[in-house]
Specification:
By secondary structure, this protein is mainly alpha-helical. The chain is built from 26 helices and eight strands.
Length: 619
Protein backbone atom coordinates (compact mmCIF):
# COMPACT_ATOMS: atom_id res chain seq x y z
CA UNK A 1 0.00 0.00 0.00
CA UNK A 2 2.86 2.38 0.86
CA UNK A 3 4.44 1.76 -2.54
CA UNK A 4 1.21 2.56 -4.37
CA UNK A 5 0.69 5.79 -2.43
CA UNK A 6 4.32 6.79 -3.06
CA UNK A 7 4.00 6.27 -6.81
CA UNK A 8 0.65 8.07 -6.94
CA UNK A 9 2.15 11.03 -5.08
CA UNK A 10 5.10 11.19 -7.49
CA UNK A 11 2.89 11.17 -10.61
CA UNK A 12 0.44 13.73 -9.24
CA UNK A 13 3.18 16.03 -7.92
CA UNK A 14 4.97 15.97 -11.26
CA UNK A 15 1.75 16.83 -13.09
CA UNK A 16 0.68 19.72 -10.85
CA UNK A 17 4.14 21.31 -11.13
CA UNK A 18 5.07 20.75 -14.78
CA UNK A 19 1.71 21.25 -16.51
CA UNK A 20 0.92 24.76 -15.16
CA UNK A 21 4.47 25.87 -15.99
CA UNK A 22 4.15 24.54 -19.55
CA UNK A 23 0.74 26.19 -19.93
CA UNK A 24 2.10 29.58 -18.80
CA UNK A 25 4.96 29.25 -21.29
CA UNK A 26 2.43 28.60 -24.06
CA UNK A 27 3.65 25.04 -24.67
CA UNK A 28 0.35 23.28 -23.91
CA UNK A 29 -0.64 20.66 -21.35
CA UNK A 30 0.52 17.67 -23.43
CA UNK A 31 4.11 18.89 -23.47
CA UNK A 32 3.77 19.58 -19.75
CA UNK A 33 2.77 15.99 -19.06
CA UNK A 34 5.58 14.67 -21.28
CA UNK A 35 8.09 16.87 -19.44
CA UNK A 36 6.76 15.65 -16.08
CA UNK A 37 7.26 12.06 -17.19
CA UNK A 38 10.78 12.79 -18.41
CA UNK A 39 11.69 14.39 -15.07
CA UNK A 40 10.40 11.61 -12.82
CA UNK A 41 11.63 8.85 -15.14
CA UNK A 42 14.90 9.16 -17.05
CA UNK A 43 16.14 12.30 -15.24
CA UNK A 44 15.43 11.65 -11.55
CA UNK A 45 14.69 7.92 -11.65
CA UNK A 46 11.72 8.20 -9.28
CA UNK A 47 9.60 5.69 -11.25
CA UNK A 48 10.60 2.47 -12.89
CA UNK A 49 9.22 -0.85 -14.07
CA UNK A 50 5.61 -0.13 -13.05
CA UNK A 51 5.32 2.47 -15.84
CA UNK A 52 4.46 -0.07 -18.55
CA UNK A 53 1.63 -1.71 -16.60
CA UNK A 54 0.34 1.71 -15.57
CA UNK A 55 0.33 2.79 -19.20
CA UNK A 56 -2.17 0.06 -20.12
CA UNK A 57 -4.53 1.42 -17.46
CA UNK A 58 -3.97 5.01 -18.59
CA UNK A 59 -4.86 4.12 -22.19
CA UNK A 60 -8.46 4.01 -21.03
CA UNK A 61 -8.29 7.80 -21.09
CA UNK A 62 -8.03 7.56 -24.88
CA UNK A 63 -11.24 5.53 -24.93
CA UNK A 64 -12.98 8.23 -22.89
CA UNK A 65 -11.63 10.94 -25.16
CA UNK A 66 -13.05 9.24 -28.24
CA UNK A 67 -16.40 8.82 -26.49
CA UNK A 68 -16.45 12.57 -25.76
CA UNK A 69 -15.40 13.37 -29.33
CA UNK A 70 -18.35 11.29 -30.49
CA UNK A 71 -20.66 13.27 -28.19
CA UNK A 72 -19.62 16.44 -30.01
CA UNK A 73 -20.37 15.05 -33.46
CA UNK A 74 -24.03 14.79 -34.28
CA UNK A 75 -24.60 12.79 -37.50
CA UNK A 76 -26.19 15.85 -39.14
CA UNK A 77 -23.21 18.06 -38.27
CA UNK A 78 -20.83 15.47 -39.71
CA UNK A 79 -22.87 15.39 -42.91
CA UNK A 80 -22.78 19.18 -43.24
CA UNK A 81 -18.98 19.15 -42.92
CA UNK A 82 -18.49 16.22 -45.28
CA UNK A 83 -16.71 18.19 -48.03
CA UNK A 84 -13.94 19.52 -45.80
CA UNK A 85 -13.73 16.33 -43.74
CA UNK A 86 -13.46 14.00 -46.74
CA UNK A 87 -11.70 16.43 -49.05
CA UNK A 88 -9.20 18.48 -47.08
CA UNK A 89 -8.89 16.21 -44.02
CA UNK A 90 -9.17 12.92 -45.89
CA UNK A 91 -6.53 13.89 -48.44
CA UNK A 92 -4.17 15.07 -45.71
CA UNK A 93 -4.32 11.76 -43.84
CA UNK A 94 -4.11 9.67 -47.02
CA UNK A 95 -1.27 11.56 -48.72
CA UNK A 96 0.77 11.90 -45.52
CA UNK A 97 0.38 8.17 -44.85
CA UNK A 98 1.46 7.18 -48.36
CA UNK A 99 4.44 9.55 -48.49
CA UNK A 100 5.73 8.60 -45.03
CA UNK A 101 5.11 4.93 -45.78
CA UNK A 102 7.19 5.30 -48.96
CA UNK A 103 10.05 6.88 -46.99
CA UNK A 104 9.94 4.02 -44.45
CA UNK A 105 10.00 1.41 -47.23
CA UNK A 106 12.97 3.22 -48.79
CA UNK A 107 14.77 2.43 -45.52
CA UNK A 108 14.05 -1.31 -46.05
CA UNK A 109 11.08 -1.59 -43.71
CA UNK A 110 8.44 -4.26 -44.55
CA UNK A 111 5.27 -2.84 -46.05
CA UNK A 112 3.21 -3.62 -42.93
CA UNK A 113 5.64 -1.85 -40.61
CA UNK A 114 5.96 1.05 -43.08
CA UNK A 115 2.17 1.42 -43.30
CA UNK A 116 1.87 1.50 -39.49
CA UNK A 117 4.59 4.17 -39.37
CA UNK A 118 2.84 6.23 -42.05
CA UNK A 119 -0.54 6.04 -40.30
CA UNK A 120 1.02 6.94 -36.94
CA UNK A 121 2.94 9.97 -38.19
CA UNK A 122 0.12 11.27 -40.43
CA UNK A 123 -1.83 12.50 -37.38
CA UNK A 124 -1.17 15.91 -35.81
CA UNK A 125 -1.46 17.16 -32.24
CA UNK A 126 -5.07 18.17 -31.56
CA UNK A 127 -4.31 19.24 -27.99
CA UNK A 128 -1.36 21.51 -28.80
CA UNK A 129 -2.72 23.02 -32.02
CA UNK A 130 -6.25 23.84 -30.82
CA UNK A 131 -5.00 25.32 -27.56
CA UNK A 132 -2.43 27.47 -29.39
CA UNK A 133 -4.97 28.65 -31.98
CA UNK A 134 -7.39 29.62 -29.21
CA UNK A 135 -4.71 31.45 -27.22
CA UNK A 136 -3.59 33.43 -30.28
CA UNK A 137 -7.14 34.21 -31.46
CA UNK A 138 -6.70 32.35 -34.77
CA UNK A 139 -9.60 29.89 -34.52
CA UNK A 140 -12.05 32.08 -36.49
CA UNK A 141 -9.67 32.77 -39.38
CA UNK A 142 -10.03 30.83 -42.62
CA UNK A 143 -6.78 29.03 -41.84
CA UNK A 144 -7.90 28.23 -38.30
CA UNK A 145 -11.22 26.76 -39.49
CA UNK A 146 -9.40 24.64 -42.08
CA UNK A 147 -6.98 23.40 -39.41
CA UNK A 148 -9.93 22.44 -37.19
CA UNK A 149 -11.53 20.45 -40.04
CA UNK A 150 -8.33 18.45 -40.58
CA UNK A 151 -7.90 17.80 -36.86
CA UNK A 152 -11.50 16.62 -36.62
CA UNK A 153 -10.91 14.28 -39.55
CA UNK A 154 -7.80 12.92 -37.87
CA UNK A 155 -9.66 12.32 -34.60
CA UNK A 156 -12.33 10.39 -36.47
CA UNK A 157 -9.70 8.55 -38.52
CA UNK A 158 -8.19 7.10 -35.34
CA UNK A 159 -11.19 4.78 -35.07
CA UNK A 160 -10.78 2.96 -38.40
CA UNK A 161 -7.00 3.00 -37.95
CA UNK A 162 -7.31 1.17 -34.62
CA UNK A 163 -9.70 -1.29 -36.25
CA UNK A 164 -7.41 -1.74 -39.27
CA UNK A 165 -4.00 -2.15 -37.63
CA UNK A 166 -4.64 -5.69 -36.24
CA UNK A 167 -5.24 -6.84 -39.82
CA UNK A 168 -1.60 -6.17 -40.73
CA UNK A 169 -0.17 -7.65 -37.52
CA UNK A 170 2.92 -9.79 -37.95
CA UNK A 171 1.71 -12.24 -35.31
CA UNK A 172 -2.05 -12.55 -35.28
CA UNK A 173 -3.73 -13.54 -32.00
CA UNK A 174 -6.09 -15.98 -33.73
CA UNK A 175 -6.33 -18.14 -36.86
CA UNK A 176 -8.94 -20.12 -38.77
CA UNK A 177 -9.14 -23.90 -38.53
CA UNK A 178 -9.97 -26.15 -41.49
CA UNK A 179 -13.71 -25.89 -40.80
CA UNK A 180 -13.61 -22.07 -40.62
CA UNK A 181 -13.72 -21.82 -36.82
CA UNK A 182 -11.53 -19.29 -35.00
CA UNK A 183 -8.83 -20.84 -32.82
CA UNK A 184 -6.91 -18.72 -30.30
CA UNK A 185 -3.13 -19.15 -30.56
CA UNK A 186 -1.73 -16.63 -28.10
CA UNK A 187 -3.12 -18.16 -24.91
CA UNK A 188 -4.18 -21.65 -23.97
CA UNK A 189 -6.37 -20.61 -21.04
CA UNK A 190 -10.08 -19.99 -21.30
CA UNK A 191 -11.19 -16.45 -22.23
CA UNK A 192 -14.54 -14.66 -22.13
CA UNK A 193 -14.48 -14.00 -25.87
CA UNK A 194 -17.87 -14.33 -27.56
CA UNK A 195 -16.27 -15.22 -30.90
CA UNK A 196 -13.82 -17.89 -29.81
CA UNK A 197 -14.47 -21.14 -31.65
CA UNK A 198 -17.11 -19.64 -33.95
CA UNK A 199 -16.98 -19.98 -37.73
CA UNK A 200 -16.27 -16.85 -39.74
CA UNK A 201 -19.93 -16.18 -40.50
CA UNK A 202 -20.72 -16.54 -36.79
CA UNK A 203 -18.06 -13.98 -35.88
CA UNK A 204 -19.59 -11.54 -38.37
CA UNK A 205 -23.09 -12.00 -36.98
CA UNK A 206 -21.96 -11.59 -33.35
CA UNK A 207 -19.96 -8.46 -34.22
CA UNK A 208 -22.90 -6.87 -36.07
CA UNK A 209 -25.19 -7.80 -33.18
CA UNK A 210 -22.86 -6.13 -30.66
CA UNK A 211 -22.74 -2.89 -32.68
CA UNK A 212 -26.52 -2.96 -33.15
CA UNK A 213 -26.93 -3.47 -29.39
CA UNK A 214 -24.87 -0.36 -28.69
CA UNK A 215 -26.97 1.71 -31.11
CA UNK A 216 -30.26 0.28 -29.80
CA UNK A 217 -29.30 0.93 -26.17
CA UNK A 218 -28.21 4.48 -26.98
CA UNK A 219 -31.50 5.29 -28.71
CA UNK A 220 -34.07 3.46 -26.60
CA UNK A 221 -32.60 2.69 -23.16
CA UNK A 222 -30.72 5.87 -22.26
CA UNK A 223 -33.75 7.95 -21.23
CA UNK A 224 -35.39 5.31 -18.98
CA UNK A 225 -32.08 4.56 -17.26
CA UNK A 226 -31.31 8.24 -16.65
CA UNK A 227 -34.82 8.78 -15.25
CA UNK A 228 -34.29 5.82 -12.92
CA UNK A 229 -30.95 7.22 -11.74
CA UNK A 230 -32.50 10.66 -11.30
CA UNK A 231 -35.03 9.23 -8.84
CA UNK A 232 -32.16 8.40 -6.45
CA UNK A 233 -31.30 12.13 -6.11
CA UNK A 234 -27.60 11.26 -5.71
CA UNK A 235 -25.09 13.21 -7.82
CA UNK A 236 -22.50 10.44 -7.75
CA UNK A 237 -24.92 8.05 -9.45
CA UNK A 238 -24.72 10.11 -12.65
CA UNK A 239 -20.94 9.75 -12.59
CA UNK A 240 -21.26 6.02 -11.95
CA UNK A 241 -23.66 5.66 -14.89
CA UNK A 242 -21.38 7.63 -17.21
CA UNK A 243 -18.45 5.40 -16.29
CA UNK A 244 -20.62 2.29 -16.67
CA UNK A 245 -21.59 3.31 -20.22
CA UNK A 246 -17.98 3.73 -21.34
CA UNK A 247 -16.57 0.74 -19.46
CA UNK A 248 -19.45 -1.55 -20.41
CA UNK A 249 -19.30 -0.70 -24.12
CA UNK A 250 -15.51 -1.09 -24.13
CA UNK A 251 -15.83 -4.52 -22.51
CA UNK A 252 -18.49 -5.58 -25.03
CA UNK A 253 -16.26 -4.53 -27.94
CA UNK A 254 -13.35 -6.53 -26.52
CA UNK A 255 -15.57 -9.60 -26.21
CA UNK A 256 -16.23 -9.54 -29.96
CA UNK A 257 -12.64 -8.70 -30.89
CA UNK A 258 -13.15 -5.01 -31.77
CA UNK A 259 -11.34 -1.94 -30.49
CA UNK A 260 -12.86 -0.45 -27.30
CA UNK A 261 -12.21 2.97 -28.79
CA UNK A 262 -14.41 2.11 -31.77
CA UNK A 263 -17.33 1.19 -29.54
CA UNK A 264 -16.89 4.25 -27.34
CA UNK A 265 -16.83 6.57 -30.35
CA UNK A 266 -19.91 4.92 -31.84
CA UNK A 267 -21.79 5.26 -28.54
CA UNK A 268 -20.79 8.92 -28.34
CA UNK A 269 -22.18 9.68 -31.80
CA UNK A 270 -25.43 7.87 -30.96
CA UNK A 271 -25.83 9.91 -27.75
CA UNK A 272 -24.77 13.23 -29.35
CA UNK A 273 -28.37 14.33 -29.85
CA UNK A 274 -29.50 13.15 -26.40
CA UNK A 275 -30.56 15.65 -23.74
CA UNK A 276 -28.12 13.89 -21.39
CA UNK A 277 -25.12 14.72 -23.55
CA UNK A 278 -23.89 17.62 -21.41
CA UNK A 279 -24.37 15.61 -18.23
CA UNK A 280 -22.15 12.84 -19.64
CA UNK A 281 -19.51 15.34 -20.76
CA UNK A 282 -19.40 16.98 -17.33
CA UNK A 283 -19.09 13.67 -15.50
CA UNK A 284 -16.41 12.13 -17.73
CA UNK A 285 -14.23 15.15 -18.52
CA UNK A 286 -12.17 15.01 -15.27
CA UNK A 287 -11.54 11.27 -15.66
CA UNK A 288 -10.55 11.72 -19.30
CA UNK A 289 -8.19 14.57 -18.50
CA UNK A 290 -6.46 12.76 -15.64
CA UNK A 291 -6.15 9.43 -17.45
CA UNK A 292 -4.85 11.08 -20.62
CA UNK A 293 -2.42 13.09 -18.52
CA UNK A 294 -1.29 9.90 -16.82
CA UNK A 295 -0.85 8.27 -20.23
CA UNK A 296 1.38 11.10 -21.48
CA UNK A 297 3.39 11.03 -18.25
CA UNK A 298 4.06 7.32 -18.72
CA UNK A 299 5.11 8.00 -22.31
CA UNK A 300 7.54 10.66 -21.13
CA UNK A 301 8.94 8.49 -18.34
CA UNK A 302 9.39 5.64 -20.80
CA UNK A 303 11.43 7.64 -23.35
CA UNK A 304 14.73 5.93 -24.03
CA UNK A 305 17.20 8.76 -23.46
CA UNK A 306 20.31 6.61 -23.97
CA UNK A 307 18.87 5.82 -27.42
CA UNK A 308 18.20 9.52 -28.06
CA UNK A 309 21.65 10.69 -26.97
CA UNK A 310 23.32 7.86 -28.85
CA UNK A 311 21.50 8.69 -32.10
CA UNK A 312 20.63 12.37 -31.63
CA UNK A 313 21.51 13.58 -35.17
CA UNK A 314 19.60 10.75 -36.85
CA UNK A 315 16.48 11.02 -34.66
CA UNK A 316 16.37 14.82 -34.88
CA UNK A 317 16.75 14.53 -38.66
CA UNK A 318 13.81 12.12 -38.75
CA UNK A 319 11.63 14.54 -36.76
CA UNK A 320 12.57 17.43 -39.07
CA UNK A 321 11.94 15.23 -42.13
CA UNK A 322 8.43 14.41 -40.87
CA UNK A 323 7.72 18.12 -40.37
CA UNK A 324 9.08 19.05 -43.80
CA UNK A 325 7.18 16.31 -45.66
CA UNK A 326 3.87 16.95 -43.89
CA UNK A 327 4.34 20.69 -44.27
CA UNK A 328 4.92 20.31 -48.03
CA UNK A 329 1.79 18.14 -48.39
CA UNK A 330 -0.26 20.63 -46.39
CA UNK A 331 1.02 23.52 -48.50
CA UNK A 332 -0.03 21.72 -51.70
CA UNK A 333 -3.48 21.02 -50.25
CA UNK A 334 -3.79 24.66 -49.19
CA UNK A 335 -3.11 25.74 -52.77
CA UNK A 336 -5.58 23.21 -54.18
CA UNK A 337 -8.31 24.27 -51.75
CA UNK A 338 -7.56 27.99 -52.31
CA UNK A 339 -6.38 28.83 -48.83
CA UNK A 340 -4.50 32.08 -49.36
CA UNK A 341 -1.96 34.38 -47.79
CA UNK A 342 -1.00 33.96 -44.16
CA UNK A 343 -3.85 31.45 -43.72
CA UNK A 344 -1.93 29.10 -46.02
CA UNK A 345 1.16 29.30 -43.82
CA UNK A 346 -0.91 28.84 -40.67
CA UNK A 347 -2.50 25.72 -42.16
CA UNK A 348 0.82 24.22 -43.25
CA UNK A 349 2.92 24.99 -40.18
CA UNK A 350 0.38 24.26 -37.44
CA UNK A 351 -0.33 20.69 -38.61
CA UNK A 352 3.19 19.63 -39.63
CA UNK A 353 4.05 17.81 -36.40
CA UNK A 354 3.09 14.33 -35.23
CA UNK A 355 0.51 14.14 -32.45
CA UNK A 356 -0.50 12.59 -29.17
CA UNK A 357 -2.55 9.91 -30.92
CA UNK A 358 0.77 8.72 -32.32
CA UNK A 359 1.73 7.57 -28.82
CA UNK A 360 -1.50 5.60 -28.65
CA UNK A 361 -1.00 3.99 -32.06
CA UNK A 362 2.63 3.09 -31.32
CA UNK A 363 1.65 1.43 -28.05
CA UNK A 364 -1.25 -0.34 -29.76
CA UNK A 365 0.94 -1.47 -32.68
CA UNK A 366 3.57 -2.93 -30.35
CA UNK A 367 0.88 -4.81 -28.46
CA UNK A 368 -0.48 -6.22 -31.71
CA UNK A 369 2.96 -7.33 -32.87
CA UNK A 370 3.05 -4.89 -35.78
CA UNK A 371 6.02 -2.73 -34.76
CA UNK A 372 9.25 -4.10 -33.30
CA UNK A 373 10.21 -2.58 -29.97
CA UNK A 374 13.32 -0.88 -31.36
CA UNK A 375 11.42 0.93 -34.11
CA UNK A 376 8.63 1.82 -31.67
CA UNK A 377 11.12 3.52 -29.32
CA UNK A 378 12.54 5.58 -32.19
CA UNK A 379 9.01 6.53 -33.29
CA UNK A 380 8.14 7.73 -29.78
CA UNK A 381 11.22 9.96 -29.80
CA UNK A 382 10.38 11.34 -33.25
CA UNK A 383 6.80 12.12 -32.21
CA UNK A 384 7.89 13.78 -28.96
CA UNK A 385 10.56 15.90 -30.69
CA UNK A 386 8.16 17.03 -33.42
CA UNK A 387 5.66 18.11 -30.74
CA UNK A 388 8.40 19.97 -28.85
CA UNK A 389 9.25 21.82 -32.09
CA UNK A 390 5.61 22.92 -32.60
CA UNK A 391 5.86 26.18 -30.59
CA UNK A 392 8.78 27.14 -32.85
CA UNK A 393 6.57 26.55 -35.91
CA UNK A 394 3.99 28.99 -34.56
CA UNK A 395 6.74 31.54 -33.93
CA UNK A 396 7.85 31.03 -37.55
CA UNK A 397 4.26 31.63 -38.68
CA UNK A 398 4.14 34.90 -36.76
CA UNK A 399 7.41 36.03 -38.38
CA UNK A 400 6.13 35.15 -41.85
CA UNK A 401 2.75 36.74 -41.12
CA UNK A 402 4.36 40.03 -40.15
CA UNK A 403 6.50 40.11 -43.29
CA UNK A 404 3.81 39.31 -45.81
CA UNK A 405 0.46 40.69 -46.83
CA UNK A 406 -2.72 38.67 -46.51
CA UNK A 407 -3.93 37.18 -49.76
CA UNK A 408 -6.95 39.48 -49.60
CA UNK A 409 -4.81 42.64 -49.91
CA UNK A 410 -2.90 41.64 -53.01
CA UNK A 411 -5.48 43.54 -55.05
CA UNK A 412 -4.68 47.07 -56.13
CA UNK A 413 -6.21 49.67 -53.77
CA UNK A 414 -9.25 51.56 -55.04
CA UNK A 415 -8.95 55.14 -56.21
CA UNK A 416 -10.64 57.09 -53.44
CA UNK A 417 -12.78 59.85 -54.95
CA UNK A 418 -14.68 60.98 -51.86
CA UNK A 419 -13.97 62.81 -48.63
CA UNK A 420 -16.04 63.23 -45.51
CA UNK A 421 -15.82 64.43 -41.93
CA UNK A 422 -15.65 60.83 -40.67
CA UNK A 423 -13.19 58.13 -41.77
CA UNK A 424 -14.02 54.58 -40.67
CA UNK A 425 -11.06 52.18 -40.85
CA UNK A 426 -12.46 48.64 -40.81
CA UNK A 427 -15.99 47.63 -41.80
CA UNK A 428 -16.46 44.44 -39.80
CA UNK A 429 -19.27 43.97 -37.27
CA UNK A 430 -18.09 46.90 -35.17
CA UNK A 431 -17.45 49.32 -38.03
CA UNK A 432 -20.72 48.45 -39.76
CA UNK A 433 -22.84 49.62 -36.82
CA UNK A 434 -20.86 52.85 -36.44
CA UNK A 435 -21.17 53.54 -40.16
CA UNK A 436 -24.95 52.91 -40.24
CA UNK A 437 -25.55 55.21 -37.26
CA UNK A 438 -23.41 58.06 -38.58
CA UNK A 439 -24.70 57.91 -42.16
CA UNK A 440 -28.27 57.50 -40.95
CA UNK A 441 -27.82 60.72 -38.99
CA UNK A 442 -26.93 62.60 -42.16
CA UNK A 443 -23.12 62.70 -42.02
CA UNK A 444 -20.86 61.48 -44.84
CA UNK A 445 -18.31 58.73 -44.13
CA UNK A 446 -15.32 57.32 -45.98
CA UNK A 447 -15.05 53.58 -45.33
CA UNK A 448 -11.69 51.81 -45.72
CA UNK A 449 -10.97 48.10 -45.41
CA UNK A 450 -8.14 45.86 -46.63
CA UNK A 451 -10.36 42.82 -47.24
CA UNK A 452 -11.82 42.54 -50.74
CA UNK A 453 -14.60 40.11 -49.77
CA UNK A 454 -15.82 42.42 -46.99
CA UNK A 455 -15.86 45.45 -49.30
CA UNK A 456 -17.74 43.51 -51.99
CA UNK A 457 -20.27 42.23 -49.43
CA UNK A 458 -20.96 45.75 -48.19
CA UNK A 459 -21.40 47.00 -51.75
CA UNK A 460 -24.12 44.41 -52.34
CA UNK A 461 -26.07 46.06 -49.52
CA UNK A 462 -25.53 49.54 -50.95
CA UNK A 463 -22.70 50.57 -48.61
CA UNK A 464 -19.85 52.17 -50.53
CA UNK A 465 -16.39 51.32 -49.29
CA UNK A 466 -12.87 51.59 -50.64
CA UNK A 467 -10.35 48.76 -50.80
CA UNK A 468 -7.06 49.73 -49.19
CA UNK A 469 -4.90 49.24 -46.12
CA UNK A 470 -5.91 51.98 -43.64
CA UNK A 471 -2.43 51.91 -42.05
CA UNK A 472 -0.80 53.12 -45.27
CA UNK A 473 -0.15 56.90 -45.26
CA UNK A 474 -1.03 57.31 -48.96
CA UNK A 475 -4.41 55.61 -48.45
CA UNK A 476 -5.21 57.84 -45.47
CA UNK A 477 -4.18 60.95 -47.37
CA UNK A 478 -6.42 60.00 -50.30
CA UNK A 479 -9.30 59.41 -47.85
CA UNK A 480 -8.98 63.01 -46.58
CA UNK A 481 -7.25 62.51 -43.25
CA UNK A 482 -5.98 66.11 -43.35
CA UNK A 483 -9.52 67.52 -43.37
CA UNK A 484 -11.46 64.85 -41.42
CA UNK A 485 -12.91 65.63 -38.02
CA UNK A 486 -13.16 62.07 -36.65
CA UNK A 487 -11.23 58.85 -37.32
CA UNK A 488 -12.84 55.56 -36.23
CA UNK A 489 -10.26 52.80 -35.74
CA UNK A 490 -12.32 49.59 -36.04
CA UNK A 491 -9.60 47.16 -37.19
CA UNK A 492 -9.58 43.51 -36.08
CA UNK A 493 -5.78 43.42 -35.77
CA UNK A 494 -4.75 45.03 -32.43
CA UNK A 495 -1.25 45.84 -33.70
CA UNK A 496 -2.61 47.49 -36.85
CA UNK A 497 -4.96 49.57 -34.67
CA UNK A 498 -2.01 50.82 -32.60
CA UNK A 499 -0.03 51.61 -35.74
CA UNK A 500 -2.90 53.56 -37.32
CA UNK A 501 -3.68 55.50 -34.13
CA UNK A 502 -0.04 56.45 -33.62
CA UNK A 503 0.38 57.69 -37.18
CA UNK A 504 -2.93 59.59 -37.24
CA UNK A 505 -2.13 61.37 -33.97
CA UNK A 506 1.33 62.27 -35.28
CA UNK A 507 0.07 64.00 -38.44
CA UNK A 508 -3.14 65.41 -36.92
CA UNK A 509 -2.78 66.42 -33.25
CA UNK A 510 -6.27 67.95 -33.39
CA UNK A 511 -8.03 64.89 -34.87
CA UNK A 512 -10.59 63.12 -32.67
CA UNK A 513 -9.84 59.38 -32.69
CA UNK A 514 -12.42 56.79 -31.63
CA UNK A 515 -10.83 53.34 -31.34
CA UNK A 516 -12.01 49.80 -30.77
CA UNK A 517 -10.01 47.91 -28.12
CA UNK A 518 -9.65 44.17 -27.72
CA UNK A 519 -9.12 44.20 -23.94
CA UNK A 520 -7.98 46.49 -21.13
CA UNK A 521 -4.27 46.18 -21.97
CA UNK A 522 -5.03 47.11 -25.56
CA UNK A 523 -7.02 50.07 -24.19
CA UNK A 524 -3.97 51.37 -22.31
CA UNK A 525 -1.82 51.05 -25.43
CA UNK A 526 -4.40 52.95 -27.48
CA UNK A 527 -4.50 55.74 -24.90
CA UNK A 528 -0.74 56.02 -25.04
CA UNK A 529 -0.91 56.00 -28.85
CA UNK A 530 -3.23 59.02 -28.74
CA UNK A 531 -6.83 57.76 -28.98
CA UNK A 532 -9.49 60.03 -27.46
CA UNK A 533 -12.41 57.64 -26.97
CA UNK A 534 -11.86 53.91 -26.65
CA UNK A 535 -14.57 51.27 -26.76
CA UNK A 536 -13.76 47.84 -25.36
CA UNK A 537 -15.37 45.07 -27.40
CA UNK A 538 -17.44 43.51 -24.61
CA UNK A 539 -17.77 46.43 -22.19
CA UNK A 540 -21.08 47.99 -23.27
CA UNK A 541 -22.85 44.67 -23.82
CA UNK A 542 -21.63 43.38 -20.44
CA UNK A 543 -22.78 46.59 -18.76
CA UNK A 544 -26.25 46.23 -20.24
CA UNK A 545 -26.39 42.59 -19.11
CA UNK A 546 -25.48 43.71 -15.59
CA UNK A 547 -28.36 46.21 -15.66
CA UNK A 548 -30.78 43.41 -16.59
CA UNK A 549 -29.48 41.39 -13.62
CA UNK A 550 -30.10 44.29 -11.23
CA UNK A 551 -33.63 44.74 -12.57
CA UNK A 552 -34.39 41.11 -11.76
CA UNK A 553 -32.90 40.95 -8.26
CA UNK A 554 -34.95 43.78 -6.75
CA UNK A 555 -34.00 47.14 -8.25
CA UNK A 556 -36.43 49.19 -10.32
CA UNK A 557 -35.59 50.03 -13.91
CA UNK A 558 -34.62 53.56 -12.89
CA UNK A 559 -32.38 52.36 -10.03
CA UNK A 560 -30.67 49.81 -12.28
CA UNK A 561 -30.15 52.42 -15.00
CA UNK A 562 -28.62 54.82 -12.46
CA UNK A 563 -26.28 52.09 -11.19
CA UNK A 564 -25.28 51.44 -14.80
CA UNK A 565 -24.63 55.14 -15.39
CA UNK A 566 -22.50 55.50 -12.23
CA UNK A 567 -20.49 52.40 -13.12
CA UNK A 568 -19.98 53.59 -16.71
CA UNK A 569 -18.59 57.00 -15.77
CA UNK A 570 -16.49 55.61 -12.92
CA UNK A 571 -14.98 52.93 -15.16
CA UNK A 572 -14.07 55.47 -17.85
CA UNK A 573 -12.25 57.55 -15.25
CA UNK A 574 -10.63 54.41 -13.79
CA UNK A 575 -9.24 53.34 -17.14
CA UNK A 576 -7.74 56.78 -17.77
CA UNK A 577 -6.06 56.82 -14.36
CA UNK A 578 -4.73 53.27 -14.62
CA UNK A 579 -3.51 53.87 -18.17
CA UNK A 580 -1.09 56.45 -16.75
CA UNK A 581 0.30 53.82 -14.32
CA UNK A 582 0.43 50.94 -16.80
CA UNK A 583 3.94 49.98 -17.89
CA UNK A 584 4.51 48.13 -21.19
CA UNK A 585 6.31 44.81 -20.77
CA UNK A 586 5.43 44.49 -17.07
CA UNK A 587 2.71 42.14 -15.90
CA UNK A 588 -0.15 44.03 -14.29
CA UNK A 589 -0.05 42.01 -11.05
CA UNK A 590 3.65 42.85 -10.65
CA UNK A 591 3.06 46.60 -10.93
CA UNK A 592 2.54 47.48 -7.25
CA UNK A 593 1.52 51.09 -7.89
CA UNK A 594 -1.06 49.93 -10.45
CA UNK A 595 -2.48 47.24 -8.13
CA UNK A 596 -2.82 49.60 -5.17
CA UNK A 597 -4.55 52.28 -7.24
CA UNK A 598 -6.90 49.69 -8.77
CA UNK A 599 -7.93 48.57 -5.26
CA UNK A 600 -8.58 52.18 -4.21
CA UNK A 601 -10.69 52.85 -7.30
CA UNK A 602 -12.71 49.67 -6.72
CA UNK A 603 -13.48 50.84 -3.17
CA UNK A 604 -14.48 54.23 -4.56
CA UNK A 605 -16.87 52.52 -6.99
CA UNK A 606 -18.52 50.49 -4.22
CA UNK A 607 -18.90 53.64 -2.13
CA UNK A 608 -20.41 55.56 -5.06
CA UNK A 609 -22.94 52.82 -5.82
CA UNK A 610 -23.97 52.41 -2.18
CA UNK A 611 -24.27 56.18 -1.72
CA UNK A 612 -26.47 56.44 -4.80
CA UNK A 613 -28.68 53.61 -3.52
CA UNK A 614 -29.00 55.30 -0.12
CA UNK A 615 -29.99 58.63 -1.72
CA UNK A 616 -32.66 56.92 -3.82
CA UNK A 617 -34.16 55.20 -0.78
CA UNK A 618 -34.33 58.53 1.11
CA UNK A 619 -35.97 60.17 -1.89
Amino acid sequence: MEGFLYQASIYLLAAVIAVPIAARLGLGSVLGYLTAGILIGPVLGLVGSETESLQHFAEFGVVMMLFLIGLELEPRALWDMRHKLLGLGGLQVTLSTLVLMGVAMAYDQPWGVALAIGLTLSLSSTAIVLQTLSEKGLMQTNGGRSVFSVLLTQDIAVIPILAFLPLIAVTLPMKLSENGAIVMTADDHHTMSLVEGLPAWGVTLVTIAAIAAVIFAGIFLTRPVFRFIHSARLREMYTALALLIVVGISFLMMLVGLSPALGAFLAGVVLASSEFRHELETDLEPFKGLLLGLFFITVGSGINFPLLFGNAPAILSMALLVILLKGAILMVLAIVFRIKGRDRWLFALSLAQAGEFGFVLVSFSVGQGILPTGIAEILLLVIALSMLITPLLFILYEVISRRMSDGSVQHEPDEIDEEGPVIIAGIGRFGQIVNRLVRGSGFATVVLDHDMETIQLMRRFGVKGFLGDPTRPDILTAAGIKNARVLVVALDDPEAAIKLTTYARKIRPDLHIVARAYDRTHTYRLYQAGANDIVREMFDSSLRAGRYVLENVGLSEYEAAEAERVFYHHDRDTVRQLAALWKPGMKIDQNKEYVERAKELQRDLETALLSRETEQKRA
